[in-house]
Every structure is written in C-alpha cells, then in structure tokens.
Design a protein that fits this description.
By secondary structure, the chain is mainly alpha-helical. The longest helix has 15 residues, at about 20-35. It is extended. The protein has four helices and no strands. Helices cover about 70% and strands about 0% of the residues. The N and C termini lie far apart (about 45 Å).
Length: about 70
C-alpha cells in the first residue's frame, strides 16, 4: 500500500459520519491487531471447518432459501 493510499484512507475516515461503518472499521482494526484467529481455534473447531469445506467441495450444500423453507 502506498503512502498516498494510506493518506486518502485516513482523510476519508476522518470525514465519516456513518457510525455503523466506523464501528466496522474499528472492529477490523482490533481483529488485525489480535493476530491470526485461526491459531486460537480448538481442534474440534478446525475439524468442523474442514468438514464444511469437504461438504461444499462434494456438493453437500443447502441454499439459504431451501434451508428457510424447510426450517422457517
């Protein structure tokens, strides 16, 4: 990222009035300072992620629309 881009972002943030967007930017900043969230996951959480990735790869998915039709 160039210094110009950083300055442009800083200026843009200073002018922001949207509290929701400012909150989202703040959360992004906090999460980036905490390091890699993946390293803090338990073995079970990682296994669940891998299982979901495998399900997606093999077409074992359900659209949001179908989920809500069945469970809504």
């Amino acid at each position: 990222m160039t210094l110009t881009t950083q300055n442009q972002l800083a200026e843009w943030i200073l002018k922001l009035e949207d509290e929701g967007l400012l909150d989202a930017i703040s959360q992004l900043k906090e999460s980036s300072q905490q390091g890699d969230w993946y390293t803090d996951l338990t073995g079970g959480q990682k296994e669940s992620i891998y299982k979901g990735m495998e399900d997606h790869k093999n077409g074992r998915t359900l659209s949001s629309e179908n989920f809500w039709k069945k469970n809504g």
